[in-house]
Amino acid sequence: MRFLCVALLWAVAAAAVVVAALSPWWWCAAGPLLALAVLAVADLVQRRHSVLRNYPVIGHLRFLLEDIRPEVQQYFVERNVDGRPFDRDTRSIVYQRAKGTDAEEPFGTELDLYELGREFLVPSLAPVAVPDRAPRVRIGGPDCAQPYDMALLNVSAMSFGSLSANAVLALNTGAERGGFAHDTGEGGLSEYHLRPGGDLVWEIGTGYFGCRTDDGGFDPGQFAAKAAHPQVKCVSLKLGQGAKPGIGGVLPGAKVNAEIAEVRGVPQGETVISPPYHRVFDTPRELVRFLARMRELAGGKPVGAKLCVGSRRQFLALCKAMAEEGTTPDFLIVDGAEGGTGAAPMEFADHMGLPLTEGLITVHNALVGTGLRDRIKIGASGKVATGSDLVKRLIQGADYTNAARAMMFALGCIQAQRCHTNTCPVGVATQDPRRVRALHVADKAERVRRYQEATVRSALQLMAAMGVDDPADLRPHLLNRRIDPQTVRSYADLHQWLEPGQLLDRAPEEWARDWHEADPDRFTV
């Protein structure tokens, strides 16, 4: 259709030029028409803007509207779960860093510093030098034979099927160039994950796509064969997702083409609904044993799980099971309720699960209190987009972070919110080959790399200004929060932070009931 429209525009412009040769007054129409025709061709062949490749000429209206501020700016500002906008237009920050145009701005802050809930990092009067090289996090506990050094910011879980082939290729190519990890999402391990050569965290969901039996169960043989691939550095078992905890993923049938059906092991053209629960375990103890089995099948590579925290008692039951079984996962990814998804009921997205801050603090404290924290690294995901987001999550208990939506912005996502319709206008979240064509892999891969590099550099600069050159030295007192118009308190005072082994010795009053009732042989809310 776009080629037909461009051809029609050229035909009209040519006709106007012919008529203008007879009457000079017709140049008033012929000139603009000829300019639009040239612009249309330029839009089709350029590779920087996917929306212009799919929507030549009229796509410029989007950029025009974004420049009209503040009248329509609010339309483009993403909002948190509680309805508050991000600090500044986060999407613009990601775009600037992805394009390599990130720079300091004149004048002062545009934020309301007295807004309730506003958070502040604590600067030092003795800042330190910014490290020349970004630190990495060693993933691998005592039972791990092939540990992996994780970057501070990585690509969070997004499946092939939900994303297009070109989007997956660009993400993995960016990860390979930048030396960070790419989580496959639960949709299986495709050639687009493997072809560029970037490091992978292979995620296994309740549908066991990529290692699935004919009746939808877990196939250990398929799993072992694919986990042995040298690009697969870690394996993650998805227990829950922040945007939709307690239900499985959904891939509309319109997106399930022959290629995706083969990767996932499902019928072509039918909507794929992952079950809300796993078949391979029913209790915390069985979950711990299954994670240990996965690590064995994976040849000793790091194995972990992703979850959205709900019941503290259930997570403590998992900690008890780890302690009694004498084995732990190598990492846990805490997904906040503010995380995104391509398809989920609004009630789940808005009302289920703990936000990332509370989820991180709960998991960190529980592992510290049971003496397991030094064996398990914690990843954080859920609207991580800027260097300040990264630093805050490290202070709250994470060792590293993952980003999904910000990586999609780096790919060119414009938040059209048509992910579930297979009509994404920029080729990110569609399987329509005509739309996918607009996403130029080499250009978008470089944007992904630049965004990750600039964001980690920003985090290191913030830490240096706080007097910290090692993320392990970040402490809760370095993050403040305004709790009323006159009061600012640090996270050290706002939350209770357990000492190593404290729950085993004598649980504090706030934790005592949950700790006492946590059962390693039953998931009790």
| Quaternary structure state of the chains depicted | single chain
How many strands, which pairing sense, and closed or not: the largest β-sheet? 8 strands, parallel
Average pLDDT metric: 87
CATH architecture assignment of the largest domain: Alpha-Beta Barrel
Percent in helix? 40-55%
Uncertain runs are 68-88
Number of helices: 21
Class from secondary-structure proportions = alpha/beta
Name the CATH class of the largest domain: Alpha Beta
What is the CATH topology descriptor of the largest domain?
Answer: TIM Barrel
* Inertia-based shape: globular
Instruction: Tell me the CATH superfamily of the largest domain.
Output: Aldolase class I
Q: How many domains, as an integer?
A: 2
Count of strand segments: 15
Descriptive account of the structure:
The chain is 40% helix and 12% strand. It has 525 residues and is an alpha/beta fold. The chain folds into two domains: 2-76, no CATH class; 151-463 and 470-516, Aldolase class I (TIM Barrel), CATH 3.20.20. The strands form four sheets. An eight-stranded parallel sheet has the order 4-13-12-11-10-7-6-5. A three-stranded antiparallel sheet has the order 1-14-15. Helix 1 (2-22) runs antiparallel to helix 2 and helix 15 (387-395) packs across helix 18 (441-465). The longest helix has 25 residues, at 441-465. The N and C termini lie far apart (54 Å). The model is unreliable at 68-88 (pLDDT under 50).
